[in-house]
Amino acid sequence: MRTATKRIAQRTYMLTDRLTGVNQFLLEGEERALLIDTGYGTKSLPRAVERLTSLPVVAVNTHLHPDHSNGNGFFGKVMVGERDLPAHGVPSNELFEGVAAAYGKSPLRPFMSFARKLALIDSSAADYSPLPDAIDLGGRRVEVIPCPGHTAGSVLFCDSETGTVFAGDAINREQWMFTCPASATKSYAELWRGLEARLAGYSELVISHSRKPLDFGFIGEFIRAFETIKPENGRPSRIKGTPEPVTFYEYESERYGRIRVWAYPSQVR
């Protein structure tokens, strides 16, 4: 399946895996190009990158989940948030194995075998190093801001040239928090309250699972969704094999519609 490419701003491209719908992003400077995320490892991704730029490519991950990092091996050296370095472990592998084991005798067993090829991260496939505070592409500087919550090492890539924040999975209408059990709903709201002020000069949030960016007004409603979560309002999901029951909490925004937070009950604090 080919990787679709689209120019979204000057020297800035969105690359989308046509099968999974997950986005990656390529930013060109005068001396280097920055590839934000590498998807599930579709072989067409490196070919698409080569068609778009002749510059040396710096590969980075917004966070270490398989749909953002399983193509890391194509690029050899990859930078991630310090707390997502594989040397600290790969929590998503453990989470998936628990879920897969729970479905071992169900009709979904054949699907789990296929999913394992996509979902497990081989940390030996690339050489990992921690991200700096900023990446200089030559005439274009991209700031790196930690945003722990979806994973411990999740980051935002902030490009002042286009006024764009590349947020990965750090903010969404469907926000997964159970993938980072140490995070808590109230502290994540506080984190984003600080980020809302810090990012005031930017114009849009580009995310990984939608081709349509979020405007900055969404941040305020996203914060309110987390601030108003009450334990008694949670509804159990059908996900099996997790350390605690994955529960979802819904907030209805007049402007943006439903915002749903998926978390363990112990994270609602």
Structure overview:
This protein is of the alpha/beta class and 269 residues long. It has one domain: Metallo-beta-lactamase, Chain A, CATH 3.60.15.10. The chain is 23% helix and 29% strand. It has helices spanning 44-52, 66-69, 91-102, 109-119, 185-198, 217-227, and strands spanning 3-9, 12-17, 23-28, 33-36, 57-60, 77-80, 127-130, 134-136, 141-146, 155-159, 164-168, 174-176, 204-207, 214-215, 235-236, 247-253, 257-263. The strands form three sheets. It has a seven-stranded mixed beta sheet, with helices on one face. Strands 8-9-10-11-13-14 form a six-stranded mixed beta sheet, covered by helices on one side. Strand 3 and strand 4 form a beta hairpin. Helix 3 packs antiparallel against helix 4 (109-119) and helix 5 (185-198) packs antiparallel against helix 6 (217-227). The model has no long low-confidence stretch (mean pLDDT 95).
Judged by helices, strands and strand pairing, the structural class is alpha/beta
Number of helices: 6
Q: Order of strands in the sheet with the most strands?
A: 1-2-3-4-5-6-7
- How far apart lie the N and C ends? 43 Å
CATH homologous superfamily label: Ribonuclease Z/Hydroxyacylglutathione hydrolase-like
In total, the number of strands is: 17
Q: What would you report as the Rg, rounded to the nearest angstrom?
A: 18 Å
CATH topology: Metallo-beta-lactamase, Chain A
Main sheet? 7 strands, mixed
Helical content band: 10-25%
- The second-level CATH architecture is 4-Layer Sandwich
**Overall pLDDT confidence:** 95
